[in-house]
Specification:
Elements (H helix, E strand, L loop, with lengths): L1 H11 L25 H14 L3 H16 L1 H11 L27 H6 L1 H11 L16
Helix pairs in contact: 3-4
Length: about 140
Amino acid sequence: MESYHQYFDENVNSDQSKGSPANGEYFKKLTVGDQVSDADISAFAGRIWGAYSNKMEAIMTQKWAHFGIVQAPQAWTDIRRTGYPALSYPKDSGPGATVTGIVQRVKYPNTEADNNTENYNAAKDNVGGDSRDFVLFWAKKLQ
């Protein structure tokens, strides 16, 4: 409910233009009269909660829906940590494909290997290499 109120308030108080994408305007400015009641939000949340047999999946999916917009790195970390929401990722199988799956971790910057070689080598050896495909010890393998 709080997430809804946050986004609603941001829209009502924004400087974005009124209108619709059909008119070349991408944000419909809401008014206080457009607000959904707390009872409707609770009823919707209850239906969503009841639809999931795995409650961790329900919680993490809703958290992702909120954080996916405002804190994408947090959402990405939560997916890697819990495996939820279970998203499908397209694979690049074309000629010369270099990205064949979801990125499991951020690689160290090239400057680290150039300017801090001893510590870079120790760190990459400690985690099993400096590869975007390496799954960290706390993360789940995403497919």
